[in-house]
Amino acid sequence: MQLYRGMDIGTAKLTGAEQGGVPHHLLDIWEVTETADVARYQRLARGLIDELRSAGRTPILVGGSGLYIRGALDNLDFPGTDPAVRGRLEAELAEVGPAPLHERLARRDPAAAEAILPSNGRRIVRALEVVELTGRPFTANLPEHVARYPCLQIGLQIPRDELDERIRMRVDRMWRAGLVEEVQKLEKRGLRSGRTASRALGYAQVLRFLSGEYDEETAREETVRATRRFARRQESWFRRDPRVHWLPYDAPDLTGRALRLVGSGAACRVT
Predict the structure, then answer these.
(1) Dist CA 198 CA 191 (whole Å)
(2) Per-residue pLDDT reduced to its tens digit, 227-244
(3) How many Cβ atoms sit within 10 Å of the Cβ of residue 14?
(4) 155-210 pLDDT per residue, tens
């Protein structure tokens, strides 16, 4: 979501000062009305990775979306789309909401349903479209964990109760920093019509508050709950990847341990 211009507070996007002079890429490149997809991101990310590596630089990917990370790093090709199938599924989504479609996905591809939030209608539709077009589960299109580039993956371990509390603190900071006002400004630029941006954590809940579906406290609590659910799915996704080296987030020598991994040659295998 940090690819979207103006979505700053709710995505904890680094300010220019916080970036500390380090070049950051693929921030603020899309308007909130544009629809994101992993194949498009893959082209952008790989182009930058190739450019930086050719210049003798080592890019560092930081993020939470497991599918987007795999799309950038791994030998992963994405099935095409069929406008008729997509249109039919999107019409059904608009008519009945995401819950029945998520239940159907759970029957056809339990692993995909576990990885996709029941409220994320766009991703549910895409998974069902792939199942219909390929005759295989959506997750069957994710090959073995084989990287396109030599790389090292590091994950941070944090106890669940601490993570839950940090998520609540983060949401409180977002509200104090002006998330509601940020969403109001983005509404004027078409946020509600953005099929991806309007579903972002925090933004979706504030939009429901602004439209009168929620009071403000409910919007805040729903943001906390949705973020915790998302964090659990993130962890489940990355735990299935045997290449991730897990380090305790609060280790006093965390940087040193990470650098020792970098120097150990513990890179992903490449084909």
Answers:
(1) 6
(2) 999 999 899 889 989 999
(3) 15
(4) 999 999 999 999 999 999 999 999 999 999 999 999 999 989 999 999 999 999 99
Contact 61, 41 (CB under 8 A): no
**CA distances, 103 to each of 124, 129, 157, 222 (Å):** 10, 15, 31, 22
Those residues whose C-beta lies under 8 Å from the C-beta of residue 4, and which sit 6 or more positions away, are: 11, 28, 30, 31, 32, 34, 194, 197, 200
Q: What is the pTM of this model?
A: 0.81
Is residue 267 pLDDT above 70, yes or no? no
User: What are the structural domain ranges in the chain?
Assistant: 83-141
Amino acid at 130: V
Q: How far apart are CA 244 and CA 259, in angstroms?
A: 15
pLDDT of residue 225: 97
| Residue 252 φ/ψ, nearest 5 degrees | -65, -25
Percent of the chain at pLDDT > 70 equals 96
3 state SS for the chain: CCCECCCCCCCCCCCHHHHCCCCCCCCCCECCCCCCCHHHHHHHHHHHHHHHHHCCCCCCCCCCCHHHHHHHHECCCCCCCCHHHHHHHHHHHHHHCHHHHHHHHHHHCHHHHHHCCCCCHHHHHHHHHHHHHHCCCHHHHCCCCCECCCCCEEEEECCHHHHHHHHHHHHHHHHHHCHHHHHHHHHCCCHHHCCCHHHCCCHHHHHHHHCCCCCHHHHHHHHHHHHHHHHHHHHHHHHCCCCEEEEECCCCCHHHHHHHHHHCCCCCCEC
CATH number of 83-141: 1.10.20.140
Query: The tokens of 104 are what?
Result: 């159907």
